[in-house]
Amino acid sequence: MEQYRAHLMICAGTGCVASGALKVRDALDVEIRKHGLENEIRVVLTGCNGFCAKGPIIAVHPGEIFYQVVKPEDVPLLVEEHFIKGRPVEKLMYKMPADKKAIPVMNEIPFFKHQVLRVLRNKGLIDPDSLEEYIARDGYQAAAKALIEMSQQEIIDTVKGSGIRGRGGAGFPTGLKWEFTSKSPADQKYLLCNGDEGDPGAFMDRSVMEADPHSVIEGMVIGSKAIGATKGYIYVRAEYPLAVERLRKAIKDANEAGLLGRNILDSGYDFELDVYLGAGAFVCGEETALMRSIEGQRGMPRPRPPFPAHKGLWDKPTVLNNVETFAQIAPIILNGADWYKSLGTEKSTGTKVFALTGAITNVGLVEVPMGIPLRTIIYDIGGGISKKGKKFKAVQMGGPSGGCIPEHLLDTPVDFDSINATGAIMGSGGMVVMDEDNCMVSLAKFFLGFTADESCGKCPPCRVGTRVMLDTLTDITEGRGKPGDVETLLDLCEDIKATSLCGLGQTAPNPVLTTIKYFREEYESHIHDKWCKTGVCRDLCSFEIDAAICTGCGVCARACPQKAITGEKKQPHKIIQELCIQCRTCYDRCKFGSIKIGPGLKFAKAAGASSDAQVGGASVVAGATSVGGGSK
Amino acid sequence: MIELTINGKPVQAEDGATILKAAKANGIKIPNLCWDKRLRPYGGCRLCVVELEGQPRLFAACSTPVQAGMKVLTDTPKLKKARQTVLELLLVHHPLDCPTCDKAGECDLQDLAYEYGKPEGRFIRWRKDKPADVRGPLIELNSNRCILCGKCVRICAEHQGRGALGFMGRGFPTVVTPAFGEILECDYCGQCVDACPTGALVAKPYKYKARAWYLDEKDSICSYCGCGCTLTLGIREGKILRARGEEDKGVSDGNLCGRGRFGFDYVHDASRLKTPLVRKDGELVEATWDEAMKYAADALREVTAVGGAGSVGAIGSHRCTMEDNHMLRRFMTVLGSGNLDYSGAFGYGRAQMAWEQCFGGAPHKIDLKSPLGKKAILVVDSDITVTHPVFGLNIMQAGREGARIIASDFRETKLTRHSSNWLRNRPGTGIAIVNGMMKAIIDGGMFDKAAAEKIEGFGALAASLEDYTPEKVSAMTGVPAAGIAAAASEFAGADSRLIVMSLGSSDNTKSADLVLAVANLAVLLGDGPESVQIPAEYANTFGAWNAGIRPGDGGKSVFSMLYEPGAVNALIVMGEDPVSSFPDGGRILRALKSLDLLIVSAITMNETARMANVVFPATSWGEKDGTFVNAEGRAQRMLRVSEPTGMSMPDWQIIRNLSWAMDRETDIRSIEDIRKEMADDAAVAAEALPCRRFAPAMQPAIPADGNHVLLAIRDVLQHSGSMSTRSEALDLVVREAVLDIGEADAARLGVADNAHVKVTTVSQPHYSVYLKARISDELMDGVATTSMHFPSGRVNTLVGLAADGGASLGVVRIEAASG
What we know:
The structure holds 2 protein chains of 2 kinds.
Chain A: E1 6-11, H1 14-18, H2 21-34, E2 41-46, E3 58-61, E4 65-67, H3 75-84, E5 94-95, E6 102-103, H4 110-113, H5 131-136, H6 141-149, H7 152-162, H8 174-182, E7 190-195, H9 204-211, H10 213-227, E8 231-237, H11 241-256, E9 272-278, H12 287-294, E10 318-322, H13 323-335, H14 337-341, E11 351-358, E12 364-369, H15 374-381, E13 392-397, E14 403-406, H16 416-422, E15 430-435, H17 440-454, H18 460-463, H19 465-477, H20 485-499, H21 503-507, H22 510-528, E16 542-545, H23 555-559, E17 565-566, E18 574-575, H24 585-589, E19 595-598
Parallel strand pairs in A: 1-2, 7-8, 7-10, 8-9, 11-15
Antiparallel strand pairs in A: 1-3, 3-4, 5-6, 11-12, 13-14, 13-15, 16-19, 17-18
Helix pairs in contact in A: 6-10, 6-13, 7-8, 7-10, 9-10, 9-11, 10-13, 17-19, 17-22, 19-20, 20-22
Chain B: E1 2-6, E2 9-13, H1 19-25, E3 49-52, E4 58-60, E5 71-73, H2 77-92, H3 108-116, E6 139-141, H4 151-159, E7 165-168, E8 175-178, H5 191-195, E9 201-203, E10 216-221, E11 230-236, E12 239-244, H6 258-262, E13 277-280, E14 283-286, H7 289-307, E15 312-315, H8 322-335, E16 340-341, H9 348-359, E17 376-380, H10 384-387, H11 389-400, E18 404-408, H12 414-417, E19 421-423, H13 430-443, H14 449-453, H15 458-464, H16 470-477, H17 481-493, E20 497-500, H18 512-524, E21 532-533, H19 541-546, H20 558-561, E22 570-574, H21 578-581, H22 585-593, E23 597-602, E24 614-617, E25 626-629, E26 635-638, H23 651-661, H24 671-684, E27 709-713, H25 728-733, E28 738-742, H26 743-749, E29 756-761, E30 768-776, E31 783-786, E32 810-816
Parallel strand pairs in B: 1-5, 15-16, 15-22, 17-18, 17-20, 18-19, 20-21, 22-23, 23-24, 27-31, 28-30
Antiparallel strand pairs in B: 1-2, 3-4, 3-5, 6-9, 7-8, 10-11, 11-12, 13-14, 13-24, 25-26, 27-32, 28-31, 29-30, 29-32
């Protein structure tokens, strides 16, 4: 292996590629060659670094110098200063928001400081396409240990002892699942990896598959021996082309190196692994639906029992684990159960990866020990609310199956049981942060729209239930809400949870339940006052300029697409209500907070009258025509 | 057995049974809309949710297995509310068009909504109003009424092995539809219609015919194939309006094929004979019963006066009841003639006689359930799912439950598609396949040699198989040697085995020798007669044979009476149309022309009746009481459910009256008299002793002609004999004989899809028929197929009579029809 003076690790995760990482790489290549440094400095494309908000990102080793938001035009300066003159470039470094002080070393940046990397242990350190680099970071040592030195039961005991729970969302103990399946007699067993990450705003699994595909494969090799499977699939959605490409390359390399396939490492164990492309249906992340999908059938869940441990893929005993779960297995085998348990809480051990997104400063991927308070993730790692002056409102955990957690519960420790107690779920680790400008009814509507769209249609509670909930929420956000809607929703939610066939339907009401639980007054205000106080529901708000605050800067007037704002320079402005379309642009632009949100004007006159008069949608259809008044 | 309690009542259930099954067995009703005992649990409708004590969540009873000590609650306020909500949701967008829905009154959704539903709906709703898909011939799909329980999709794919329906779309907009929303093209079994818990699938012939509550339902036995399925007939004002299968009823246990379900309407066909006809001045004219009887009796007397009783012959029928056939036999006995036979001679009789050579003289009964639980099933050159559909379902079910199905057939069929080893042999080479398998078994020592050697004929068998090496068999059949070897070891190595084949009057790719071959294979492997299943062809084929509708001592057979001009001078044909349905119709026509007297009883005017001197109008199935004995040897009573057509009379009465008119006393007055005689006959019948012998069979040479193609006759799923062609409903699916031809042959012979072709037998070039050609990817090169059902097709003139009495396989010339 050749020796280099410095390694430039360019993040080539999907986020950074989108923000131009590859162009930076090209510029670097040119610049380095120009200076004849190609034998001294090596440029490596790595998987996702995690700090997506600051991409493109370059980490320089040695020294762990972190450069952010690098543009191709910065490259000549960077090469000149850092690699020729040896002076790291402060301009490209991370600055503390408070004092603008540059922080050169990656792990001293708050975003990284609080993280503990186990799943993401190789993040930004290796070329995901290089088996050698994975091996250089202790890769496949655990597989060798498991296959050659450990018995099936020892592997299961170690995994059980570690306390690791499935990272797909439900948190079922992984070791237990393996044990059940290992004891299920069959001529063929299967080991499946669930890479069908579908929650809006979640991208942990994609990053792991893209950044460190071998860590998943190694975990699966170990798991295959534990349960006695000789055949496995990684189910990845086709919308993750880079993950698919990297996994395929990794599987090919591992096969060629004897780390996969027949007689792995001369241990006598066989494990054949393939990538199976899903077509992107959210429900195919449900284990029984995923198995049907691999079988070539329509992706619809099946009732359990029989559980996959007895009858899974092609009716053979099958284990399905999440990408992140598999990525944790090798370190557990290598370092032992106690090492793993040393982090986290008693019932939720180890670390968990979260995808931080939404109204937060540091959008990105973070790995933290279980049990750390939500507040630490959102404020210390995430840097708090991105928009100046706005307050934190809630964080949605677990995507469409999860729920929102309000401000007063921010000290909840992040572990399976504590999060469940709030009404949200750990889920696969999506965290969507919302500030005070978010409408919680609209949030619930958004997620219901998602689940209604993604319901497979097999059972009525989910198929029709999500649809009528969506209809009701749409009515509420469009001014047709009526007294009793909240109670009806709560009642329906309970029945849908109780009767739905699979996890999708059983958890679909969670966003509605938690938003009602914590933000009921918002629903009430939508229904009774026809007033969306965040100005999100256009029919239920109006905008006015507070003359006492307005400085007459004119920003709002220039931004208004309707030219509905008039006023003399440096004089308070005014909104012409007849022209206003409630797009909220003025509100978002005004730096002084002079724009005030009032109730929906078209309901103003009727506000005092009987509310029944306007709710056309509530009337039961009488004729044979297709569309009643209420819905679209 | 597992002990548990349901609603506090201690009950027992089989290990592995679901809660729903255990409850059902103990008379506890749990509501459901997607469960069907024939299908694997689906868990879709969520109505069968139950509470388990100590568990917070609800469980679907249809899919949760019972456990010892389980405390199940099926009817609690919590469950009632959950079910109410599910039903409320199902009705949110349901069209509620019950006043115009055929299902109303027997609709599961309606009944459950009535039981659980709330009077008010809480949600915004609108009715779905997609137009119904009325394009298919027999089944209408109304997706507005559909609750997506998936029963139709699953019964079609899982149970029927067809998969003609599927879900399209996702979530709320999901619909059940044929692939790509095209016209439903399927087996037309209508099982989906029975399974549908709402009015989403409607049988078109029944549409707007009667409200369910005005319908009188009576059970009867199907008149088509030898399965003998129980039809639950819906009758109103003396007319049969529909047929359906009902769970737990009869040998079919709720299953029906399209013939049974839709094909009953021939009973009400406009072509039914209403009065007797006698020939006057060369024309058949209407007559009274008295005139016709006198005419027939006088004419018969005249014939017997000249030629003696031996110059009279009679043909019975597999379509007629035991009672009808018995009466005919008694009549011939008192007349003094042994010239009696029926269509069974072409099929079942051949099989029975061959069978007896290996297994002794007991009647060969099948067991419709025999495939279930078997590990290997060999189906030789037979498409059982077409000839005996409900028996075929059991083969398919065995396959689903793990049986290896080895199927030899030249054509791709449902069975070959669902088989684990398809031996695609050339038509007529089944014997070579079976002999080849035996050779491989003997050479490989895959049998109990010591036991087999003790059986009579082993030496001869072994010697006869010398030439059936894998290579030679491969050359004879076109099946790769490895395929035969694999079939042999798989079949011989299985823990339990079954051989199934059919042998019918229209099958020209098989001979009685094939029965010998399969019997040899069974005996070789130490299996008993029950391991060979050759179902009798039609509703009463088995019964008529065992009722003695066979030539008496010195009597003439059908091969003589119908094929040798002058063999008899007078012929009584009861309930049969030999001219259209028996092989070599041209020869039959000539023989019938030579007769002095032809007396025909028939339900409709047919080709044979057209030549008759007297035609008696017979009541059909459904209009008379009687007994059919199915292929299992099971006597089943069928009822008179419909008013007789015109002046028609049951065949037994016609023959009885004829005997009276001739002053030949049979002592039979009533149907009870016949039944008493039949019981007496049965009591004295000697039980034949079973035996086991080998009777070698050799593969005959198959006619070959490089320029022409073999014409194989195959039944069509929607038809049975020629009677079904009188069914308007079945004719909507297939209304004419079609010549199926492979792509390569079609190209070579210049045959276009859907164009007419002239088909001529090479050995008898004066016989030609014109058929519509259909290019099929199911056929191999050098073979064309068609069916013999349609009198108008005259296909039976293309088929000769083989030496063993079956239809013969021949080469035909196919030319594009000009003009």
